[in-house]
Design a protein that fits this description.
homodimer, 178 residues, alpha/beta, 5-stranded parallel beta sheet, 6 helices, 5 strands
Chain lengths: 178, 178
């Protein structure tokens, strides 16, 4: 039997920004999930895979740093939107650049909304073979307050999902940070 | 960057018997998870992976067909145990034979006990990179009565877990069958 002729495996990775490392770094768990995908799944078979990077921006959260800004004209809003877009693009650039170095095909794009819902909608639309999510690996007590995207997607995404927990030696002092 | 030198990716697959196709067929969901692993993950890169097949036999369930048998001597129990062992080996043979055809390294073994607990214990012992489980994809109502091994393992196994739902066109008349 030959498996070499089957179509390329599409792996979707949802990635987000770090809460601590300063912009535009990827979160620890996003990077971990990405590195795991390369090392354990893609390995040396770059031509067999296509990676699809989805970054979901939460509108409120992204504007939070700008609390002291004054918005007086439609132009201000346009500038803000351009800034958001630039932030998202910088984040995605990290992943796309790495993929090009390795020679694995990829696509990346930005959506706005509630990450868990947007991820599931994008899975439905694109139908990847596998969705890979980084996770902070929070305990049940912490989860009550912060919720987890991965738990929701494992239940609701219409494709197989694998959650990659953050390595314990990479957990920041406050485990809610990432 | 080269990913070709990283150690082989160990993928554990927990497999069980079909409830309908007659012995020693693998269950629909086990076969589905296996085929998915070959087509979507291993692909043509057979040398990058090692598949670990674990078959957990439930002691009560396996003896159920023998309700009319009479056990009168220690020899009877030995025969029964040998029969169980033969059943498990036949099941594993299917997967091991396929792996040899494709040229992917594999190991397989049998354990007795509660599947969900044994799977998690074996993950702890062997530390695979990924655990892949077939799932019947039952709805919440059906799950109340039959429980699901995959749901337990997603929560408790100490490695990334991916659940492969049975294809809808392969679902038997009674979805609890497999």
């Amino acid at each position: 039997m030959s498996t070499s002729e089957s179509p390329v495996t599409w792996i979707m990775l949802a990635v987000n920004e770090s809460t601590i490392r300063g912009y535009p770094h990827a979160s620890i768990s996003s990077r971990g999930a990405f590195e795991w995908t390369l090392q354990k799944i893609v390995r040396s078979n770059a031509s067999g895979f296509k990676l699809l990077f989805l970054h979901v921006q939460v509108p409120d959260e992204d504007g939070f740093d700008d609390m002291d800004s004054i918005y007086a004209s439609p132009e201000d809003f346009k500038n803000m939107k351009n800034r958001d877009r630039a932030r998202g693009l910088h984040l995605l650039e990290f992943f796309v650049t790495r993929c090009h170095e390795i020679g694995v095909a990829c696509e990346s794009w930005i959506k706005k909304g509630d990450p868990k819902e947007v991820i599931c909608l994008e899975v439905k639309r694109i139908q990847p073979d596998l969705l890979i999510l980084g996770s902070r690996g929070l305990g049940p007590f912490q989860r009550v307050f912060v919720g987890t995207v991965s738990e929701f997607c494992v239940k609701h995404a219409e494709c197989p999902v694998v959650t990659i927990k953050r390595r314990s030696d990479e957990t920041p002092q406050d485990p809610v940070d990432d």
